[in-house]
Structure formats: structure tokens, C-alpha cells
Design goal:
The chain has 416 residues and is of the alpha+beta class. The chain has 15 helices and 16 strands. The strands form three sheets. It has an eight-stranded mixed sheet with strand order 1-5-6-11-10-9-7-8. A five-stranded mixed sheet has the order 13-12-14-15-16, with helices on both faces. A three-stranded antiparallel sheet has the order 2-4-3. The structure holds histidyl-adenosine monophosphate (HAM).
Length: 416
């Protein structure tokens, strides 16, 4: 083979695409029920949008972006996530000037140059939602509930909802210092990356996958013990609304997430069925991002569901989306084919899935194909039937056959 796809970039083939369509359709219905409207932003943006928005010291920005330069030397990047793009579009198009709450969703591919493995790709897809213009805590709960509702509606139940509060601009810096102090005391037990993180972005150490680091930070102070009163009250309110919705959740004091814009409520929805890549969805509040990207002070919260991971959890339902037909047309000979051709078009206009044999095959071979397609009915039109202006309609389940005048085939199909 001369060409193959790029490592970490995957083809999605039928019947799996049927599953993807189902997931998207279901998510759109849930979004609509929560009053969210769709926004579509470009797959590429100026690199600076992401480095400023997501944070220079995050893995995503420091090592995972696909970048290139335009003819003027400006850096551009394939989007590694949607939030920064949605905020850019929200500001650029003046949505913030209208005031009020904006509820936007987007579905599409994202790109991160990560080491590919099960559940981790370089081009992956997200179902992403952003709510801009409300400080919470009711909207925080709504977003968590909406994420869980999407998963449940697409048939995913065995997940764990983990939540944490990351504090705000007034309490986070104090915690950062406390954590920094602690980390400098255990510096020798940390990996190279974490030593760097300890200085530049200490909260990142909680994301480290190295076992010795995980062990070393077990005694680290957790943010929940250092958040201010306002943040603690906010978090309590969010939890009480989740209780009211009957949602079970786990408080995860070390949940920090991989993007720097988060504050206050953050959450991740995890599964035990996907190995190391256990996050099916993640999100949180990002009250400082709009301002950081040049806009006004504007609270916001959002989340993204990873479509590959969701699809992997529903893998065993894929055969359900295999090819099928309501009617298979077995026309024998060119004259029969020409006679039935416009009838096929009329049947499809009625919304029926109609398949036919394009080449010259005998009746036996055609019936075999009808079987494979799991067709409900087969219309058989041979030379004799054509002469009489009739067709044989065979019910594939009961094997019963009836003779139907050709000009009544379409109206008859309405009965099925
Ligand atoms: P994130 O946690 O980086 O958050 O990604 C959200 C979800 O995307 C993950 O939970 C995972 O299911 C999926 N995902 C991430 N990376 C990959 C990958 N390499 N391969 C397959 N799936 C992946 C964000 O992206 C935030 N923008 C979410 C958000 C929206 N926060 C506020 N608004």
C-alpha cells in the first residue's frame, strides 16, 4: 500500500459511522432540551489563542499542538480543543454585547500530538458545550446534569462523576504557594517533568502518571482545604443541586484537569472500562478566560465529551447499524430494470430503503443478497411478469408471495 493514514488519525467506517450518527443525534436532542444552540468554529486558529487561553505550561500547549506558519510567519494551530475557539467567536461576533446567557454547543474534530493508544488519538472528536454569562452555582449543576444526561441518553450508565473545586483568583495563589513549598520539600522524589511543574505550574503535578510521583504527592495539601469561603459556599450549592437532581458524585480533591483556565467547579466523568484513558468527559468553570482573551469580565462553564471513548463503550451495538433494506428489487433483464427504475425512485420518496442489483445476476443470487441485507420484502420482476404488467412481492419472513400490478406497487408499499 502506497498511502496509509497518519498515525493517530483514524478512518471511521460503516457500520460504526451509524453509531456515531446516533450519538450526535442524541446529543443534539439533549442540547435542544437544555436550550443550547449550535456554533461551528474553524478547525484552525492563531496559535496564540490556545497558548494564552489554555496555558503555556500545559502539556497541550507545550508539546501537543499541530502548528504551522502562514506566509506572513504568523503561527497557526489545529485546534486542540473547542473552548478557546468558542470564546474567540463569542467575542469576535459581539455575542457578549447582547448580554444575557449564551448556551452554545459544537461537535467536531480536535487535534493533539499525543502518543496514540487505546482511547487516545491525535485526531479525536468532542461533543462540546459552553455556557457563557452566568456565575453559577445553578448553571454549574445544569452543565454537569446535561453531560450526564447526554451519556445516559446514548446508553452509557456505568460511569463515575468526579467533582472538585479549584478555587478562584483570590484563594488559588495562596494554595499555589503552599503546594510549591510542599513540593520543594519532596523535590528529590519527583520526576524531571514534575520538578519543572513544581516551579511553573505546581497544580499540574496531580496529573502526573509516573507511579513514584503519585506516591510522593499522596501527602500533598489539597486545594479543597484552601479554598475561600465564597468558593466553598459555591461548591456546596452545586452539590446540593446535584443532590436535588438525584445524581451521585464523588468528591475528588486531587482532580485538577489539564487546562489552566479552570476555576471553582471542575468535573470529570470516568469509566473503568477503557483502561488508562478513563475520562469520558471533562469540564468546569472558567470565569477568567473571556477577559484573558480580550473580552469583559464574564463567568462561564463548559465541558466536552470524547466521542471515540463513548463509541468504544458502545462497541457491541455497532452491528445494529449494519446495512439493511426495507425492499430489495430483483429485476431480471434490461427491460424489467427500466420498467421498475422509476418505481424504485417513487418508493424511496416515501422514505423506504430500497436496494437493487445493478448488474445482470440470476434470481438466486439476487435473493441471496436480499437475505444478506435483511430485506423485509423482495419485488421480483422477470420477463413473464413484465409482459403481464405485474410483479411478485415476496415477504422474506413468511416466504408468502403475492402478485401485484406494477402500477399499484407504490401505493401498496404504503401499507408496510
Ligand atoms: P479535556 O479533558 O482535554 O477537556 O477533553 C475532554 C474529553 O475529550 C476527555 O475527557 C476525553 O474523553 C476526550 N479526549 C481528550 N483528548 C483525547 C485524545 N487524545 N483522544 C481521544 N479523546 C480525547 C477539554 O478539551 C475542555 N475544552 C473541555 C471544556 C469545555 N471545558 C470547558 N469547556
Amino acid at each position: 500500500m502506497e498511502f496509509s493514514s497518519i498515525k493517530g488519525f483514524r478512518d471511521i467506517l460503516p457500520p460504526e459511522t451509524g453509531l456515531w450518527q446516533g450519538i450526535e443525534e442524541t446529543a443534539r436532542k439533549v442540547f435542544s432540551s437544555f436550550g443550547f444552540l449550535e456554533i461551528r468554529t474553524p478547525a484552525m486558529e492563531f496559535t496564540e489563542l490556545f497558548s494564552r487561553g489554555i496555558g503555556q505550561e500545559t502539556d497541550i500547549v507545550s508539546k501537543e499542538m499541530y502548528t504551522l506558519s502562514d506566509s506572513k510567519g504568523r503561527g497557526m494551530a489545529l485546534r486542540p480543543e473547542a473552548t478557546a475557539s468558542v470564546v474567540r467567536a463569542y467575542l469576535q461576533n459581539g455575542l457578549h454585547e447582547a448580554g444575557g446567557v449564551h448556551k452554545l454547543y459544537t461537535i467536531g474534530p480536535m487535534f493533539r500530538h499525543e502518543r496514540p493508544q487505546k482511547g487516545r488519538l491525535r485526531q479525536f472528536h468532542q461533543i462540546n458545550a459552553e455556557l457563557l454569562g452566568d456565575p453559577g452555582p445553578v448553571s454549574d449543576a445544569e452543565m454537569v446534569i446535561m453531560a450526564m444526561t447526554i451519556l445516559e441518553a446514548i446508553g452509557i450508565y456505568e460511569v463515575r462523576l468526579c467533582i472538585n473545586s479549584l478555587g478562584c483568583v483570590s484563594c488559588r495563589p495562596g494554595y499555589r504557594n503552599t503546594l510549591s513549598g510542599y513540593l520543594s520539600g519532596i523535590r528529590n522524589s519527583l520526576c524531571e517533568d514534575c520538578r519543572r511543574r513544581a516551579e511553573l505550574n505546581p497544580l499540574r503535578v496531580f496529573d502526573c502518571k509516573v507511579e513514584s510521583c503519585k506516591e510522593a504527592i499522596k501527602g500533598a495539601p489539597s486545594i479543597s482545604e484552601h479554598i475561600c469561603r465564597g468558593c466553598a459556599e459555591h461548591f456546596d450549592q452545586v452539590k446540593s443541586y446535584l443532590d436535588l437532581a438525584g445524581l451521585a458524585f464523588t468528591f475528588a480533591p486531587n482532580l485538577v484537569r489539564g487546562l489552566d483556565y479552570y476555576c471553582k467547579t471542575t468535573f470529570e466523568i470516568q469509566t473503568d472500562r477503557l483502561g488508562a484513558q478513563n475520562a469520558v468527559a471533562g469540564g468546569g468553570r472558567y470565569d477568567g478566560l473571556v477577559k484573558m482573551l480580550g473580552g469583559p469580565e464574564m463567568p462561564a462553564i463548559g465541558f466536552a465529551v470524547g466521542m471515540e471513548r463513548v463509541a468504544a463503550l458502545l462497541e457491541d451495538t455497532i452491528p445494529r447499524y449494519s446495512k439493511g433494506a426495507d425492499i430489495f428489487v430483483a429485476a431480471l433483464g434490461e427491460a424489467s430494470k427500466k420498467r421498475i427504475f422509476p418505481i424504485i425512485a417513487a418508493l424511496r420518496k416515501k422514505g423506504l430503503r430500497v436496494e437493487m442489483e445493478y448488474g445482470e445476476k440470476g434470481l438466486k443470487a439476487q435473493l441471496k443478497r436480499a437475505d444478506k441485507l435483511n430485506a423485509g420484502k423482495v419485488i421480483i420482476l422477470g420477463e413473464d411478469e413484465l409482459k403481464r404488467g405485474e410483479a411478485i412481492v415476496r415477504d422474506m419472513a413468511t416466504k408468502a408471495q403475492e402478485t401485484v400490478p406494477l402500477d399499484r406497487l407504490v401505493s401498496l408499499a404504503e401499507r408496510h
